[in-house]
Specification:
mainly alpha; 3-stranded mixed sheet
């Protein structure tokens, strides 16, 4: 019996030694070629890679102690040495059958059949030096995994699809709190696999996916279970559980990859952003409000309240949506557990207003702030609107009567004084057409860009909708172009026009007069500048008008006939024309309001208005004071004629 046992023991030892020797011989056989650092081959993607291998690469690997042929198991292909280059790929499923099944049904596994770039086991785990995910150096460790995933998900090929764009999730994730937590050594901070899964990673559209719309709350609950319990109790969690996909989940409020701390000004849940960028997405969506009966004007009633206005003005202390409704366990006022239930509303307000009582707490709500429910507020508001129209309208009429009297008195005084003809009837006509055309263009142009401004509603009240607005705008543009050609012809073809053109040309004296004028009004010089027929402000306005008209006409035609111009010009010309047209309009409007109106209306020497634009005439007294150099040119002619209606210019051309 002892002899039999000894024989069996010796036989077992012999088999073990034989197998060990075989393994040693096997690895040495493989390394006889693969120990060459210059050895290369092609992987399953057809990319040339190094085939250099050392046993040292397995020292820290989870596969340490295994033989080459344990993984490279294509024994038929390696009967001969050197073996063929097209060996069967390593099949990790030989040992990891359960994981292989998960991978095959995952998004990555299903992509392998059609996409040669789809990741395989080695894409994530490596080849020979496969480390445990608990090893900080492993490509699948929490800290390294985002970079491993980024090898594919940051590539341009995944962001250049013409139909479906995949966002650059890596950069967004690295800016978020989860990546920051991992960098700080917080073990519970989420990495890619915590949210998307590992080998069973699925598309978001798959109902089994951890990032499917319905499953995201449970995925987040793996780390934030306390928040999940609150969310599940709230109306949003209940609605989503009931299959209402319009209900928000965690990602809808916090974001997906770029989840930021609420104290970060860029976070959607920051106090300054949550109303507009989170709650307002649904509660200011007319379609959702109507679909679920959320109550009209609830969002706007908050925006118009002190809290909403204060937040929009940068306050971080004023109440936002979550201050009253809470963040996750949001419940309707009818629920006894709700923070806005009548029994709880006072304590809710006391978070900011320690002395609040029930009367104070119930003084404001979306319902009481809404005209639809608060009829008394509607009546008071209507009374005030009517009162404002009548009282302020009466004040305007009262003041216009007084102003009109001053205009008449000034007109009478000037009529009794000797005057000279400064502008011809043609020039007055041109100025009148420009005034009307420019005013209509400004009103109808800005009405398109600012449709919500109060005065645009007045246009709509009179039936000027977009269809008619655009037509009126173009008609005014035609008149402006017409009068521009009219003016150009009169300046070129008439003796008087050529004289005016010469007078309007800039000279060195204009620069000296600017300096002298500023010195005089700053009290640095007692002498006024000696202006000729035109001063530097009038010349500047004239050439600005010429420049602006050309710019507006050119860009306006591009916007009017974009299909024609893009037939021979690059596509960007339309957008550039739109930008120039808009800002040139602002420049012209402000220049007229700030500069031109000052000198013809609000200047102390002209107020309440200069009549030259209506009559073309100036009193001799005004000529002496405002254009002394011109007066010196005409004073001899004035002495020959003592008529109060002296006309000292050439006979104007007929219109």
């Amino acid at each position: 019996m002892k002899t039999i046992k000894l024989t069996i023991s010796i036989l077992i030892i012999f088999i073990i030694l034989a197998l060990t020797a075989y393994a040693q011989d096997d690895n040495e056989t493989c390394l006889s070629c693969h120990f060459d650092k210059d050895l290369t081959g092609f992987n399953h993607q057809g990319k040339e890679v190094s085939m250099f291998v050392t046993l040292a690469s397995l020292d820290s690997s989870v596969h340490n102690g295994m033989n080459c042929i344990d993984c490279h198991a294509d024994l038929e292909g390696i009967k001969e040495y050197p073996h063929p280059e097209d060996l069967k790929a390593v099949n990790c499923g030989n040992c990891h059958e359960d994981i292989e099944q998960q991978y095959d049904s995952s998004a990555h596994g299903m992509a392998v059949a059609t996409n040669p770039m789809a990741p395989t086991c080695s894409s994530c785990h490596g080849t020979h030096n496969i480390l445990s995910h608990n090893n900080p150096l492993a490509p699948t460790s929490p800290k390294k995994l985002p970079y491993t995933c980024a090898n594919c998900h940051k590539k341009q090929v995944l962001t250049s699809d013409k139909d479906v764009k995949i966002v650059n999730s890596f950069n967004r994730y690295m800016r978020g709190v989860h990546a920051q937590g991992i960098a700080e050594g917080i073990e519970s901070a989420a990495s890619c696999d915590d949210c998307h899964g590992i080998h069973d990673l699925r598309k978001a559209s798959d109902p089994r996916s951890k990032v499917n719309k319905m499953n995201i709350p449970k995925t987040c609950a793996e780390c934030h279970n306390d928040i999940y319990i609150q969310y599940s109790r709230g109306i949003h969690g209940k609605a989503l559980a009931a299959g209402i996909l319009d209900a928000p989940n965690c990602a809808d409020c916090h974001g997906e990859h770029e989840i930021l701390n609420k104290n970060n000004p860029n976070s959607p849940i920051n106090s300054s952003n949550i109303a507009d960028y989170v709650c307002g997405k649904c509660h200011n969506n007319l379609q959702l409000v109507e679909k679920y009966g959320l109550g009209k004007n609830q969002f706007s009633s908050y925006q118009d309240s002190y809290h909403g206005l204060a937040v929009r003005n940068g306050s971080l202390k004023a109440a936002n949506c979550t201050s009253c409704h809470r963040a996750h366990d949001i419940l309707p006022a009818s629920n006894p557990a709700s923070s806005i239930n009548p029994k709880n509303i006072t304590n809710t307000c006391r978070k900011c207003h320690p002395k609040a009582n029930y009367a104070f707490a119930s003084s404001y709500s979306h319902r009481t702030a809404s005209i639809e429910f608060n009829k008394l507020d509607y009546i008071v508001r209507t009374i005030y609107i009517v009162a404002i129209v009548l009282i302020i309208g009466g004040m305007v009429i009262h003041n216009m009567i007084i102003l009109f009297r001053y205009i008449i008195d000034k007109k009478r005084r000037q009529k009794a004084e000797p005057s000279v003809q400064r502008f011809t009837g043609s020039m007055i006509y041109q100025h009148f057409v420009v005034t009307i055309a420019f005013s209509v263009l400004v009103i109808t142009g800005f009405a398109l860009h600012y449709p919500d401004v109060w005065w645009v509603s007045i246009l709509r009240f009179f039936g000027i909708m977009e269809s008619s607005r655009s037509v009126i705008h173009r008609i005014a543009a035609i008149f402006l172009i017409y009068i521009s050609f009219h003016h150009a012809l009169s300046m070129l073809l008439t003796k008087y026009g050529r004289l005016q053109f010469k007078r309007l040309l800039p000279t060195k004296d204009d620069l000296r007069q600017i300096i002298q004028n500023l010195k005089y009004h700053l009290g640095k010089s007692p002498e006024k500048p000696q202006y000729g027929f035109y001063d530097y402000t009038e010349k500047a306005e004239y050439w600005a008008l010429i420049w602006g008209t050309i710019i507006m006409a050119c860009t306006g035609f591009i916007l009017w006939f974009p299909t024609f111009f893009t037939s021979f010009l690059p596509s960007w010309v339309v957008k550039i024309a739109e930008t120039i047209h808009f800002y040139e309009a602002w420049l012209a409007t402000l220049a007229i309001g700030v500069f031109h109106f000052f000198f013809v209306i609000f200047h102390p020497e002209q107020y309440p208005m200069s009549f030259t634009w209506l009559t073309g005439r100036m009193t001799i007294k005004e000529v002496k004071e405002e254009h002394p150099k011109w007066y010196e040119e005409i004073k001899d002619e004035l002495k020959l004629n003592d008529n109060s209606t002296t006309k000292i210019e050439e006979k104007p051309e007929p219109q």
